[in-house]
Amino acid sequence: MKHTSFSGKLVILGFGSIAKGVLPLILRHIDMPKDRMEIITSDLRDVEIAKTLGIRHTVLPLTRDNYAAELSTRLSAGDFLLNLSVDVSSVALVKLCRELGALYLDTCVEPWAGGYTDPALSPSQRSNYALRESALALKNQAGPTAVMTHGANPGLVSHFVKQALLNLAQDLGIPADVPTTRAAWARLAHDLGIKVIHIAERDTQVAGNMPKRRGEFVNTWSIDGFTGEGCQPAELGWGSHEKTLPADGERHSFGCDAAIYLMRPGAATRVRSWTPLEGPMQAFLITHNESISISDYYTLRDATGAVSYRPTAHYAYHPCDDAVLSLHEFAGQNWELQQEKRLMMEEISAGMDELGVLLMGHKKGAYWYGSRLTIEEARALVPYNNATSLQVCAAVLAGLVFAIENPALGVVEADELDHSRILDICLPYLGEMAGVYSDWTPLQGRATLFPETLDAHDPWQFVNFRVV
To answer: For residue range 236-260, what is the model confidence (pLDDT) as tens digits?
Structure first.
């Protein structure tokens, strides 16, 4: 099925796991000639895949000094820049695309090389909050559509939240038309009693015959992306129901004020969460754009402009077991990345990625809605993918289609897109979609062997989720 046609040029920046995985989907679902597509990368890695698929591959590392000149010769009005790279500034690329009249999509707001760990920047300045604010500064300017941060998470999970809210309203017998405005979506979340939203993910993929070796970082998706995020401060959208700021919590002195950060890296911060198949788990609070955008999007204000409702939102990620071991070794080296890196793909022997949103605080307690995609299903559906990458790639495809169909929206985030259109495109590639209720709270089963500071009166306080 061709979802749309595109007559412009498509330039794909970067050719890592997501670019390789999404390319077959683009060729399958977007009607456009191959000779109007080009891949630009910093090295020859996986060039044979590009040759097999018949797409031009150019080795051209982009820097602050050359990106504008090089891309200006390749892009013009009506073309599309799909940014799946690392170490190239997303904001710089969006500004250039606006000047050239080209469409744009990325999966995160990326800084220039070193931006995640620059010691000259304060934790606030190198946070995802700051990166998001730099992108939002472009919103009020007219221009071609630039879809920001539209992979699986951030991206797809924002559409899961909307569908989960509609499911919950129906199950609770609360009459609700599908909201058509940001304020109406926030009112629905408020009326349902949503206090906390976790992006709750458990990756169980394993490489039976190739376990992690010493000195090696192993993961099922971008290692540079994961470790870069992991070294940023742990960040979370901060809800209006929260009573006490964490002792190491800080607010930002600029922007929308929808989030806080902790004075410690996300890769060293754990929280309690839950998914249907895993059950209770301890996960990493890795910073992500959706933690901030979801809390911001679902904010209600009173007549004075003060916040009257906002949910807490954050990522709760339990990666594959080899990635957990890799993080432990990474931390032991004071966040100096291992010499060897391995992206698990062909060697994966079993497992799935259980990715969803966990909505908590409503009358039914907790509700998880999301995708259960196995490695076997992923391989049968699209080449060059594992379960984790395909959840991202499906959302990238949907974002591309949306931008082509809506080419003059300026800068937009996932929360602002038509969730039903995005899900229609993604669902064939997400395996089993499940919605499961639970009576789990972060207070359940807590051992009393050692004293803890807990809020027994409100289980949905962040102090109860955090592992200390």
So the answer is: 999 999 999 999 999 999 999 999 9
Rg (CA), the chain: 21
Tokens of 138: 């472009």
| pLDDT tens track for 133-184 | 999 999 988 899 999 999 999 999 999 999 999 999 999 999 879 999 999 9
Q: What are the φ/ψ torsions at residue 399 (nearest 5 degrees)?
A: -65, -40
How many Å separate Cα 305 from the centre of its chain?
29
- Residue 351: which residues within 8 A CB-CB, separation 6 or more? 203, 204, 205, 206, 320, 374, 375, 387
Tracing tokens 């031009």 back to the chain, one arrives at: 56
Which amino acid is present at 1?
M
pLDDT in tens, 376-396: 999 999 999 999 999 999 999
What residues pair up with 314 in beta bridges, in sequence order? Answer: 198
Report H helices in 272-408: 289-297, 321-332, 375-381, 387-405
pTM of the model: 0.97
Residue type, 196: V
Phi, psi of 349 (to 5 degrees): -105, -20
Distance from chain centroid for Cα 438: 24
Residue 78 CB-half CA count within 13 A: 5
